[in-house]
């Protein structure tokens, strides 16, 4: 009996030990599974499947803001909304990356296999140094180059147009040719190429950086308003949040208003337009019948001159109003002091008016704080008459390739050059006359008004003086940008 009990004892111990071991293993395994499940979510940010710079999920291509962007078209009204609501750029895209997208290239390189990761490592190298060197070379070559002697070349890249037709809400109806029914679009893809150098690629963000804390003011006639609207559109391309740009008085852009101030909040700068047809003072006189007639005081600066003083960068023009009827005839119109000339030559009046302007600039502009441009005469292309006598340019679809018009240089421009040469203060002449001689294809023509309800647009009076936007004035602003790169002052 005792022998049987002693022999079964080891078997009982073994059975108990085995059962206990199995229980412990099951318990530990359960603890492991519980711990893994609990920690899995907190470790997920470090999981290789979610690394954004991976072979399967490459870095998104960052494109320049300028030419591929499209926004909602403005309303059909002639008045243009000046503070539209825009979609904000995805916050995942770093603002600095967007700003520098014109000047930096991001290169994604996959590095082979290394330890532990099945998807490999990806490195991002920014070739900004090489890009900067290339840009510096372009700028240096411009220093000895005549930027206004050259030709137009057709481009197939994304540089021109600088913004897409219909994308800018600051183009008024008179210049919005595509929206008004113009069907050809080749005129949008011409780039100005100086003979001895290249213009630097237009960088809207860099332009805004150069304007930071400053004011840029365009002063002149409707041709300068044409350029002003272009300036708003090209600079708008440098903004990630386009609602941060607005007219400070809440005004919409219309032909009837002669003063606009647009604020760029993120750069604390303004772009302004001041209407001044002649740069000298317009007035009226009473005649014997009690009616009033217009006069032009060629020895007195325009009434808007107080506004000019506060601008850091000024862009002036005058010219097109000097060929209008009363100005060209010069009868009882031109005035010096209190004397109204019964008859006075319009060319001499133009010369004296520019001297009046030049004298004011010399006496009132501080060259340490202000920079002055004078934008030259912009060529018109009327066939068979003038703007008010049946002249036309409808159907022109490409620039002039040859002919006497390419060498045309009006007497007005020679007078401008003389006036600037005699000035004490340096003035940059944006001599766009000859480069606009080529562009008979760039005018609104019959597309200065919206074609509504299928009605044919009238061809009786065509606009062959102003320019479609996008279009030729964008190049004038490109030249201002190039000039600022050469002369970072002020």
Characteristic terms for this protein:
about 500 residues, alpha/beta, seven-stranded mixed β-sheet, four-stranded mixed β-sheet, 11 helices, about 30% helix, about 15% strand, elongated, disordered N terminus
> What share of the residues does DSSP label as strand, in percent?
15-25%
Provide the succession of SSEs.
Answer: HHEEHEEHEHEEEEEHEHEEHEHEHH
Tell me roughly what share of residues is in helical segments.
25-40%
- In round numbers, the mean pLDDT is 80
Distance between the termini: 116 Å
Give the C-alpha Rg.
34 Å
Task: For the largest sheet, list the strands in their spatial order.
Answer: 6-7-8-5-11-14-15
Largest sheet: 7 strands, mixed
Pfam families: PC-Esterase, PMR5N
Transmembrane segments: 12-34
Biased composition (Polar residues): 64-73
GO molecular function: O-acetyltransferase activity
Task: Give an overview in words.
The protein is 29% helix and 16% strand. A 7-stranded mixed beta sheet has the order 6-7-8-5-11-14-15, with helices on one face. A 4-stranded mixed beta sheet has the order 9-10-12-13. A two-stranded antiparallel sheet has the order 1-2. It has one domain. It has 490 residues and is an alpha/beta fold. It is elongated, with a radius of gyration of 34 Å.
How are the secondary structure elements laid out?
Blueprint: H1 2-43, H2 95-99, E1 106-111, E2 121-126, H3 128-142, E3 150-154, E4 190-194, H4 204-211, E5 215-220, H5 222-236, E6 245-247, E7 259-264, E8 269-275, E9 280-286, E10 292-301, H6 305-308, E11 313-316, H7 325-329, E12 334-336, E13 339-340, H8 346-364, E14 371-375, H9 411-421, E15 428-430, H10 433-437, H11 472-486
Parallel strand pairs: 5-8, 5-11, 10-12, 11-14, 14-15
Antiparallel strand pairs: 1-2, 3-4, 6-7, 7-8, 9-10, 12-13
């Amino acid at each position: 009996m005792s022998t049987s009990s002693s022999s079964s004892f080891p078997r009982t111990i073994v059975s108990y030990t085995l059962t206990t071991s199995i229980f412990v293993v099951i318990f530990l395994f359960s603890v492991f599974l519980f711990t893994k499940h609990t920690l899995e979510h907190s470790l997920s940010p470090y999981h290789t499947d979610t690394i954004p710079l991976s072979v399967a999920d490459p870095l998104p291509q960052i494109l320049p803001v300028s030419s591929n962007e499209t926004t909602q078209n403005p309303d059909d009204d002639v008045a243009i909304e000046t503070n539209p609501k825009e979609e904000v750029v995805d916050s995942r895209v770093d603002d600095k990356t967007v700003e520098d997208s014109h000047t930096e290239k991001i290169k994604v390189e996959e590095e082979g296999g290394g330890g532990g990761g099945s998807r490999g490592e990806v490195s991002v190298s920014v070739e900004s140094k090489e890009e900067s060197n290339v840009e510096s070379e372009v700028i240096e070559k411009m220093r000895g180059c005549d930027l206004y002697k050259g030709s137009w070349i057709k481009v197939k890249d994304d540089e021109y147009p600088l913004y897409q037709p219909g994308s800018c809400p600051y183009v008024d109806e008179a210049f919005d040719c595509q929206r008004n029914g113009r069907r050809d679009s080749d005129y949008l893809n011409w780039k100005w190429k100086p003979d001895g150098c290249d213009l630097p690629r237009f960088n809207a963000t860099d332009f805004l950086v150069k304007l930071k804390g400053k004011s840029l003011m365009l002063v002149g006639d409707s041709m300068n308003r044409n350029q002003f609207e272009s300036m708003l559109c090209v600079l708008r391309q440098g903004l990630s949040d386009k609602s941060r740009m607005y007219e400070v008085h809440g005004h919409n852009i219309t032909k009837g208003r002669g003063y606009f101030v647009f604020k760029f909040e993120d750069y604390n700068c303004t772009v302004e337009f001041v209407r001044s047809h002649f740069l000298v003072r317009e007035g009226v006189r009473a005649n014997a019948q009690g009616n009033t007639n217009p006069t032009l005081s060629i020895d007195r600066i325009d009434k808007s001159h107080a506004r000019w003083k506060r601008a850091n960068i000024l862009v002036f023009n005058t010219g097109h109003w000097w060929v209008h009827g009363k100005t060209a005839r010069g009868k009882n119109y031109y005035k010096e002091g209190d004397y109204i000339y019964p008859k006075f030559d319009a060319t001499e009046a133009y010369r004296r008016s520019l001297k009046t302007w030049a004298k004011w600039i010399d006496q009132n502009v501080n060259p340490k704080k202000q920079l002055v441009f004078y934008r030259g005469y912009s060529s018109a292309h009327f066939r068979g008459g003038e703007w008010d006598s049946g002249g036309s340019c409808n159907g022109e679809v490409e620039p002039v390739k040859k002919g006497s018009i390419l060498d045309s240089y009006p007497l007005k421009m020679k007078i401008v050059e003389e006036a600037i040469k005699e000035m004490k203060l340096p003035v940059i002449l944006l001599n766009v006359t000859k480069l606009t001689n080529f562009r008979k294809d760039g005018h609104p023509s019959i597309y200065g008004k919206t074609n509504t309800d299928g009605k044919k647009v009238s061809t009786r009076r065509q606009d062959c003086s102003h320019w479609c936007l996008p279009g030729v004035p964008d190049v004038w602003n490109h030249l201002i940008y190039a000039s600022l790169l050469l002369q970072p002052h002020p």
